[in-house]
Automatic annotation (TrEMBL):
One of its GO terms (biological process) is response to metal ion. Pfam families: CutA1. This is Periplasmic divalent cation tolerance protein. InterPro entries: Ion_tolerance_CutA, N-reg_PII-like_a/b, N-reg_PII/ATP_PRibTrfase_C.
Length: 105
C-alpha cells in the first residue's frame, strides 16, 4: 500500500489541535504532527509574514482524497495549503501501523 503525508497550515495552535484530533478520530490520518512556523507569502498583491501552525498528517493513498476533502471543508482559509507527498520509504512496522490506523471501520 502507498503511504503519504499531507501538509496544511492553520492560524492557531488551537485550530491545529482541533483539526488534528478530528482527522485522527475519523481515521483519515494515523497521526498529525503540529509545529509553529513563520510563513511569508503574497496575498492580494501584498507580501505578508504570518505566524502559522503546520500540520503533517500520515495517511494512505486509499484515504488521501477523503482526507483532503475533510480538511478543505473544515479549514478557515479561503485557499488552504493541501500538499501531499508520497513516502518513498519507511520502516515496515511504522507503515503497517499507518495502514492499520487509517483502515475504514
Amino acid at each position: 500500500m502507498e503511504h503519504y503525508q499531507l501538509v496544511t497550515t492553520v492560524e492557531s495552535a488551537s485550530a491545529a489541535g482541533k483539526l488534528a484530533e478530528a482527522i485522527v478520530t475519523a481515521r483519515l490520518g494515523a497521526c498529525a504532527h503540529i509545529m509553529p512556523i513563520t510563513s511569508v507569502y503574497r496575498w492580494d498583491g501584498e507580501v505578508t509574514r504570518e505566524a502559522e501552525w503546520r500540520l503533517v498528517v500520515k495517511t494512505t493513498r486509499d484515504r488521501l482524497d477523503e482526507l483532503m476533502a475533510f480538511v478543505k471543508q473544515r479549514h478557515s482559509y479561503d485557499l488552504p495549503q493541501l500538499v501531499a507527498t508520497e513516502l518513498a520509504a519507511g520502516s515496515a512496522d511504522y507503515l503497517d501501523w499507518i495502514t492499520a490506523e487509517t483502515r475504514r471501520p
